[in-house]
Write a structure and sequence with these properties.
heterodimer; A: alpha/beta; Rossmann fold; five-stranded mixed β-sheet; 22% strand; globular; B: Rossmann fold; two-stranded antiparallel ribbon; 11 helices
């Protein structure tokens, strides 16, 4: 069925759908119950499912994330919500040393079917301890899968994809997307994990983006189209695994590439993608690759500084001009 | 408690002791590498606790877990092969001494992050409670774990959620080489647990009978739905922290003093009818077989290097 709803409502509908379908699924995290979720994603779920399956936790990120791992080992399908990616660092030990390693350390005996959702990204003047985009960091870790839903459809689909996966899956929801509206088709077959999606086909330039960067890229592509530059815009959807095939096929078509990265440039997912293009499609390039990343500064509070720190469509347009001018 | 059970406890503790002595020998021959943390001196805890469990119960242990694994009933062959890094090892050679795992006995490691296993045990016990399964999860850790935040977070959640969880703290007085009194303002660990409203006991961890009785009592209370229980076992490790430890932080006389409470010695004093010679040859044969098994094991082919990072297709 097709409906137009918000990203927030799409995540909530997906959680509700899977909790109704599968008694092993439960939601656990700070303020997910009585408060309704710090971003109101779980509003109403406590009333629907009760406190045994919508579990308010103390401010103990490490232990409730570890408890999610333990419950997954015990046959459950937990969804752990961490309030923001910055707070997830308090649980990094559990995510890295247990969730990502148990299958391997046990020689394949114990898989961890855990879903961890968290808000990511800046733009709300929440300063340097609430606004970062560390999904690229998590993509460094073998054993994890890292999803970055941009659209309402993916916000819905990725909950189900992650729950169906036998291994730990991290879902990064950019907090500026929660109020965005889009079309949701709950009957549609979801695009699998690890598959990128071409949102706009083009012939002159490939723009690779994920999460909120997708919309900045699409906006830039409209400006560029008016100038006669036909950009192809690809939503990566998953930062681990990366869809090398879709990326390289587009490079072979357009021969020019730009990456939009909400994280910092140094040691970033955009650096990884550039390296892969170098390894796999270097001779297809007609110009040096470009990228628009977050400035290398902790996110500042002041509105104008924060906006200047984040990737924006005008910067994408400027970078496109630069790439197009290179022979 | 009868003579037959006392004999069985003695046999199991002796197996752990001799197994680890063999590990030291193999380490010096470079057959075993990496870290090797010996349990010698602490055997009474593993044997006493495991006796109280059924195969349905779950165990989360630490990196000093050879004794727990043996007492839980994991085959010495598979444990030794793991030490050798062979495919036949209980963790396929991917874990080594610190990461022993076994589905059959619900043995979930083998965690080398101090206190890192406590949250997992909380989650496992939570799953049992949610699914209304009558199982108990046992979580074993050392006194070093008490300093970690996860210790406090986990005790709080276990009590708050009324989980079927038995905490076993092996207080051997040293977190690696730093004595408890240098790191804790309150060195009575059972008091910390009590502060979280967990039924908490401090017992003699060198006395296998005391450990077994306290564990059995605790397990039956937990199974009856009375929530988590915390047992602090006072113990001592006779050997160095690992093979790299020069033991500069404690006096030899202190070690000798504690050896008077050797769990094997204590049990024999209590049950003089145990013929302590009776088990040596049987255990020597078990260990010989384990070494043979490990020696003859296979090294995993290099093309399998990236296995076990993600589940194979079809796994749910």
């Amino acid at each position: 069925m097709n409906t137009t709803i918000t990203y927030r409502e799409a995540v909530r509908q997906a959680i509700r759908f899977w909790m109704e379908k599968d008694e092993r699924v439960f939601l656990m995290g700070e303020d997910v119950g009585h408060y309704g979720g710090s971003y109101a994603v779980s509003m109403g779920l406590l009333e629907r499912f009760g406190a045994e399956r919508i579990i308010d936790t103390p401010l103990s990120e490490s232990t409730f994330t570890g408890a999610g791992i333990g419950a997954a080992l015990g046959g459950m399908r937990p969804i752990v919500e961490i309030m923001t990616v910055n707070f997830s660092l308090l649980a990094l030990d559990q995510i890295m040393n247990n969730a990502a390693t148990l299958l391997h350390m046990s020689g394949g005996q114990f898989n961890v079917p855990l879903v961890i959702r968290m808000a990511t990204g800046g733009g709300k003047q929440l300063a340097a301890q609430h606004s970062h985009s560390l999904e690229g960091w998590y993509a460094h870790i073998p054993g994890l899968k890292v999803l970055t839903p941009a659209t309402v459809q993916d916000a819905y689909d990725m909950v189900g994809l992650a729950l169906a996966d036998p291994d730990p899956v991290l879902i990064f929801e950019n907090s500026l997307l929660y109020n965005t509206k889009g079309l949701l088709d709950t009957e549609a077959m979801p695009l699998p994990i690890g598959k990128a999606h071409i949102h706009r086909t083009g012939t002159n330039l490939t723009i690779l983006a994920y999460g909120i960067g997708l919309f900045k890229a699409l906006e830039a592509a409209e400006t560029l189209a008016a100038e006669g530059i036909d950009a192809e815009v690809i939503d990566l959807r998953s930062l681990r695994p990366l869809d090398d095939d879709t990326i390289m096929n587009s490079v072979r078509k357009t021969h020019r590439v730009m990456i939009i990265d909400e994280g910092w440039k140094s040691g970033s997912i955009s650096a990884e993608i550039m390296a892969r293009i170098n390894e796999q499609a270097f001779f297809e390039l007609d110009a040096p690759m470009g990228r628009v990343c977050t400035a290398e500064v902790p996110i500042p509070y002041a509105h104008h500084l924060e906006q200047a720190a984040l990737p924006q469509s005008d910067k994408i347009v400027a970078m496109a001009h630069k790439i197009m001018e290179e022979a | 408690m009868d003579l037959n059970l006392a004999k069985e406890f003695y046999r199991q503790m002796l197996l752990i002791r001799r197994f680890e002595e063999k590990c030291v020998e193999l380490y010096s021959k470079e057959k075993i590498r990496g870290f090797l943390h010996l349990y010698i001196g602490e055997e009474a805890i593993a044997v006493g606790v495991m006796h109280a469990l059924t195969l349905d119960d779950a165990v989360f242990a630490t990196y000093r877990e050879h004794g727990h694994a043996l007492a839980r009933g994991i085959s010495p062959n598979k444990i030794m092969a793991e030490m050798y890094g062979k495919v036949e090892g209980c963790s396929h050679g991917r874990g080594g001494s610190m990461h022993i795992f076994d589905t059959e006995t619900r043995f979930y490691g083998g965690s080398a992050i101090v206190a890192g296993g406590l949250p997992l045990a909380v989650g496992m016990a939570l799953s049992d409670k949610m699914m209304k399964r009558n199982r108990v999860t046992v979580c074993i850790f050392g006194d070093g774990a008490v300093a970690e935040g996860e210790f406090h977070e986990s005790l709080n959640l276990a009590a708050l959620w009324h989980l079927p969880l038995l905490f076993i703290c092996e207080n051997n007085r040293y977190a690696m080489g730093t004595a408890l009194e240098f790191t804790e303002s309150e060195t009575n660990i059972s008091l910390k647990a009590a502060a979280y409203r967990i039924t908490s006991r401090q017992i003699d961890g060198m006395d296998v009978i005391a450990v077994a009785e306290a564990s059995q009592q605790a397990i039956s209370e937990i199974r009856a739905g009375n929530g988590p229980i915390f047992i602090e076992c006072l113990t001592y490790r006779f050997r160095a922290h690992s093979m790299f430890d020069a033991e500069l932080y404690r006096e030899k006389s202190e070690v000798e003093e504690w050896k008077k409470n050797d769990p094997l010695l204590l049990l024999h004093q209590h049950w003089p009818d145990i013929n302590i010679e009776e088990y040596e040859s049987e255990i020597a044969a078990i260990i010989d077989e384990a070494v043979n098994f490990a020696e003859n094991g296979t090294l995993e082919p290099l093309e399998d290097l990236e296995k076990f990072v993600y589940s194979p297709k079809g796994v749910q």
